[in-house]
Amino acid sequence: MSIEVVINGRTRQLQSDPTTPLLYVLRNELQLNGAKFGCGMGQCGACTVILDGQAVFSCVTPLAALRGRSVRTVESLGTASAPGALQAAFIKHQAAQCGYCIAGMIMRGQALLEKIAHPSDEQIRAHMEPSLCRCGTHTRIIAAIREVAHNKAGAA
Amino acid sequence: MRNKLIVASGAAVLMLGGLYAWTREAAIAPLQMVPAPGGQDSHRDGARIVALGDCMVCHTAQGGAPYAGGLALKTPFGTIYATNITPDPTTGIGNWPLEAFQRALRRGVSRDGHLLYPAFPYVHYTRMSDNDIALAYGFLMSRTPVQSIPPANDLMFPLNFRPLLAFWNLLNLTSGQSAVPADTGQIARGRYLVDTLGHCASCHSGLDPIGGERKPAFGGGTVDGWHAPALTTLTHGNAPWTEAELATYLRTGLSLSHGAAKGPMQAITEHLAETNEVDTKAMARYLMTIQTQPATTTSIAAPPVSRGDGAALFAASCAGCHGAPAPMMRLAQRPSLARSSAVLGADPSNFILTVLHGVDGARMPPYAAVLSDGQVASLAAYVRSDLAAQPSWSGVSETTAHLRQEAPQ
Description:
By secondary structure, chain A is an alpha+beta fold. Helices cover 36% and strands 13% of the residues of chain A. Chain A has 2 domains: 72 residues, Ubiquitin-like (UB roll), CATH 3.10.20.30; 71 residues, DNA polymerase, domain 1 (Orthogonal Bundle), CATH 1.10.150. Chain A is built from 5 helices and 5 strands. In chain A, helix 2 crosses helix 5 and helix 3 packs parallel to helix 5. Chain B is mainly alpha-helical. Chain B folds into 3 domains: 149 residues, no CATH class; 104 residues, Cytochrome Bc1 Complex, Chain D, domain 2 (Orthogonal Bundle); 97 residues, Orthogonal Bundle (Cytochrome Bc1 Complex, Chain D, domain 2), CATH 1.10.760. Chain B is 43% helix and 5% strand. Chain B contains 19 helices and 7 strands. A 3-stranded antiparallel β-sheet of chain B has the order 1-2-3, with no helix packed on it. Chain B has a two-stranded antiparallel ribbon with strand order 4-5. In chain B, strands 6-7 form a two-stranded antiparallel sheet. The chains are: A alpha+beta, B mainly alpha.
């Protein structure tokens, strides 16, 4: 019995057991390896994806909860040769050091920018708080998100 | 005829004037300068009194300066914003003499004479000892002054008319004595800490229709959507509290037999952690003396609720921490959800709010964006029936929908 979920805009029939956390479905069944396993307990944010417009920890998101819902991963934002706006800003600001948290950071930042087009620094900090970076590149991560927010302001 | 009219209108004016005077007390002259701070010892004792009185929990906004007020207190009558109690002379209590501070605690009157709303628990503080009031005053006056005016209260008519509080006080305020109770044993100390300083009944009694505390006290209430459990039935049910467990919980916010403090209680236990252990032990001792006899329960078979995907949702979302083999259970010895107060309670609100918003401090992640109202209900049905062997809660899906609005993160 499969479960129908929209992944990055495509409707997929997923075969994994309903008790499987979304992270394992993405990485093992769909080979979408952007989201990372960090803690497996919703504490670090490395596995963050966007579910129906909101950032969630995919490691504690049950496949059983996802019937008919829409999931987006970092792979939906762009490719290595044609990165999306936020990905390009992360590259420009060299916001990654080891990079393990970055897919989650980008998806959490993306969820914020889709909800609030021009977030204040305070809003960025509050929103990004659940995602941890052990290397300490937070100021660069904030700079990258801020740049996209400001560019959007210029375009508007 | 005309004379009678003059006398009658004169009497009416006198009555109205008298009524106004009765509802407003005299202003107390402001201090010209902030009093010199007391010594280190008195500050340490004052800090302890302020922690036991939970002043900071309400008088500090989220992310705001300590004691500068601005926290929104939602009441059934509208929103009240906590005042600034830093020693700022213009926006705080910097120009309040001790006499004014004492009157505020004893009778709910501001320095300038206007009546304070009873969200400020003066009906409890009224029985504080003179010495404790002076210590709290000395400590607060030694804090960093912050210039900050809280947002205007948003209360329904006619409650935004403060003089009406005089009538409320007539019904609800029994002005306290200035002395410590003659009996100074551990139970009396505990009663003083629970009833007077800690004002536990403010949340754990619930409110009557005019916002007074329900009597008899401690029958349980609701705060920001959270259920504040009855304190008179702690020894009932499947997971009865012991005095030692209660003392540990009050001081650490965690009971290895009943779970962690959540919602408004979490901040309270964080402040109680700063107090003397002897005080939390006294509180636990006193609370044990107010337990009622368990009624002989006639179990009513609730209609079984479909648990749908509950088991699968639990396996993916919860078992990583709450499953028996999880490190949190095996190594950190956290209690099984089968013993959790939030699961065993008759009211599902605390379970639902914990699932939706998690527990602060990255202890438990929020599931509001992950689970639908119906999925929270399936999860609740599974946890209640399969883990805790309790009859199902009813209306969990509807309550979840309601609580999503009630207490946004």
